[in-house]
Amino acid sequence: VPFPNGADANEWFISAAEQGQLVGNCGAGCGGTDDRTLHMGANILVPIPIVDPGAAYLASPTAFTNKRAESPIINATGKTNIQLSFEYLGQGIPASDYCEVYYRVGGPWILLQKLAPDAGSCAPQGVWTFTAFGLPPACDNAPNLQIGFHWRSNDLAGADPSIAIDDIQLATMTVTFPPIPCPQQTVVANVNNIPPGVTGYTWTALPAAPSVTFNPPIGSANPTVTFPAAGTYTVIVFGSTLPGGVPTATAVQVVTV
Question: Bridge-partner residues for 127, per DSSP?
Answer without folding.
Answer: 26
